[in-house]
Amino acid sequence: MKVGELPAGDLVTDAAISGPAISRHLKVLREAGLVGQRAEGTKRFYSVRPEALKTISDWTIDHRAFWEAGLDRIEAALAAEEDTWQT
User: Which long-range contacts (CB under 8 A, 24 or more apart) does 67-74 make?
Assistant: First the structure.
């Protein structure tokens, strides 16, 4: 696994999707502020922005209890529905 700043071409060779698809994904990630881009001549180098990922992580941790409670309710409702089908 490669780490650090990488040229777009390296990302394409390591991925199971096409170059144009990688390019579209990188554009979305860049616009969202999750990755940084640096140009050097005709090459584009990409790197993860750790502070952006930390923001996502912090939000996820803060909202975990809410989501777990909702998922627990869905699981209980599905189990109840399954019980009615079996009787």
Answer: none
Q: Has this prediction a pTM greater than 0.85?
A: no
Q: Note the helical H segments in the chain.
A: 8-13, 19-31, 50-86
Across the chain, mean pLDDT equals 88
What per-residue string of b and e applies to 11-37 under the rule 16 or more CB within 10 Å gives b? Answer: beeeeeeeeeebeeebeebeeeeebee
CATH number listed for the domain at residues 6-48:
1.10.10.10
SS3 (DSSP) at 19: helix
> Within 10 A of 9 (CB to CB), how many other CB atoms are there?
12
pLDDT level of residue 57 (50, 70, 90 thresholds): very high
